[in-house]
UniProtKB/TrEMBL annotation:
<feature type="domain" description="Periplasmic binding protein">
    <location>
        <begin position="61"/>
        <end position="316"/>
    </location>
</feature>
<protein>
    <submittedName>
        <fullName>Substrate-binding domain-containing protein</fullName>
    </submittedName>
</protein>
<dbReference type="GO" id="GO:0030246">
    <property type="term" value="F:carbohydrate binding"/>
</dbReference>
<keyword id="KW-0732">Signal</keyword>
<comment type="similarity">
    <text>Belongs to the bacterial solute-binding protein 2 family.</text>
</comment>
<dbReference type="InterPro" id="IPR025997">
    <property type="entry name" value="SBP_2_dom"/>
</dbReference>
<dbReference type="Pfam" id="PF13407">
    <property type="entry name" value="Peripla_BP_4"/>
</dbReference>
<feature type="compositionally biased region" description="Low complexity">
    <location>
        <begin position="37"/>
        <end position="52"/>
    </location>
</feature>
<feature type="region of interest" description="Disordered">
    <location>
        <begin position="31"/>
        <end position="58"/>
    </location>
</feature>
<dbReference type="InterPro" id="IPR028082">
    <property type="entry name" value="Peripla_BP_I"/>
</dbReference>
<feature type="signal peptide">
    <location>
        <begin position="1"/>
        <end position="30"/>
    </location>
</feature>
<dbReference type="GO" id="GO:0030313">
    <property type="term" value="C:cell envelope"/>
</dbReference>
Length: 353
């Protein structure tokens, strides 16, 4: 009998479990935005609580993120815009998505010059955007940092993150549970871009969870988060590994190519776990007619949550379920496993890849 999985509570990964999330105080009903140019940000020093310059009028929020060249990033932008539209008192100013750090810096500088009330920022490069984010904070404009962290705590009022390490732990723990008693099981891994810290964190979490139940990664390749890259990497892996019992693919967008390679090779002796939580993967899990049996969510709601948090911060409000009357400095979202048993809970918020 294997040891219990100390890294991750088994109850949290039970196939029928529903993960509750903290509900945010909305304060207004959904409706159209009514611009009000009279709003102005209050002056604070970096790291201090803003006094909320527009609690009685329209809250102007600037939003900037990378180019939507990936299904998950596209969903980030769409969800942020949809969340802003729920509030009568929010005007969302959306900068064009870009992977150019210098262009994104100029976008934030424009937000500062325009005197927005808050900025929600998913930086193309957290370190490169740190200085301009500090400038915004020093101008009294709270910055909500999404997904990719700045290199200084003074650059953001609140940071909201997914859990890359937790994704690996969730995937590894699920595989451990499915392979209970198979000490010689062959576990394979198709990672994303190996040079990225997020990929390294996912792989480390996966390795740690497998180690906890006496397994290890037998075959590993890296792709590039694209369909083409996933297909090429999977073809390489399948050629090198004549037998596999379980496979974790880090990203559902590249998973489209991974599944194509698996179909082309005629392999079906193993089960596959995806990553990120795309709608097409969840539909495949629901159909239960392929090797794909589960995926681990990396929430595409982070910027949408950032919009709601920005509004609360400007209004000097807190989160309804917390005793503390201010929004926390950091929020990290859970990485649940989606299976056939609970897919209907997560499919409505899944992104298309």
């Amino acid at each position: 009998m294997r040891t219990s999985h100390k890294l991750w509570p088994r109850l949290a990964l039970a196939s029928g479990a529903t993960v509750a999330t903290l509900a945010l105080i909305t304060g207004c009903t959904a409706g159209s935005t009514t611009p009000d140019s009279s709003s102005a940000p209050a002056e604070t020093s970096a790291g201090e609580e803003t006094t909320g310059g527009s609690t009685g009028g329209t809250i102007r929020i600037g939003f900037s993120g990378p180019a939507a060249d990936h299904g998950w990033l596209g969903a980030i932008n769409t969800a942020a815009i949809a969340e802003a539209e729920k509030f009568d008192d929010v005007e969302l100013i959306v900068a064009e998505g870009t992977n150019d750090a210098n262009l994104q810096i100029s976008q934030v500088e424009t937000f500062i010059n325009d005197g927005v009330d808050a900025i929600v920022l998913l930086p193309t490069d957290g370190a490169a955007l740190t200085d301009v984010a500090i400038q915004a904070m020093e101008a009294g404009i709270p910055v909500i940092n999404v997904d990719r962290e700045f290199s200084s705590t003074f650059a953001a009022r609140t940071t909201i993150l997914g859990d890359n390490y937790g994704m690996g732990v969730s995937a590894g723990t699920y595989i451990c549970e499915q392979l209970e008693g198979q000490d010689d099981a062959v576990v394979a891994e198709i990672a994303g871009i190996d040079s990225l810290p997020l990929t390294q964190d996912r792989s480390q979490g996966f390795e740690d969870a497998l180690d906890d139940c006496g397994l290890e990664v037998s075959n590993r390749v890296a792709a590039d988060f694209t369909v083409q890259g996933g297909e090429a990497a999977a073809s390489q892996l399948l050629s090198a590994a004549p037998k596999i019992d379980a496979l974790w693919n880090h990203d559902d967008d590249q998973g489209v190519g991974v599944l194509a390679a698996i179909d082309a090779a005629g392999r079906d002796e193993f089960f596959m776990v995806g990553g990120a939580g795309s709608a097409n993967v969840m539909r495949a899990i629901q159909a239960d007619d392929s090797v794909l049996k589960a995926t681990v969510i990396y929430p595409s709601t982070q910027a949408a949550d950032g919009i709601s948090l920005a509004r609360l911060i400007v209004q000097n409000e807190g989160m309804e379920e917390l005793v503390e009357n201010s929004v926390p400095r950091k929020i990290q979202l859970f990485a649940p496993v989606v299976t056939k048993e609970n897919v209907e809970v997560y499919l409505p918020s899944a992104f298309e890849s």
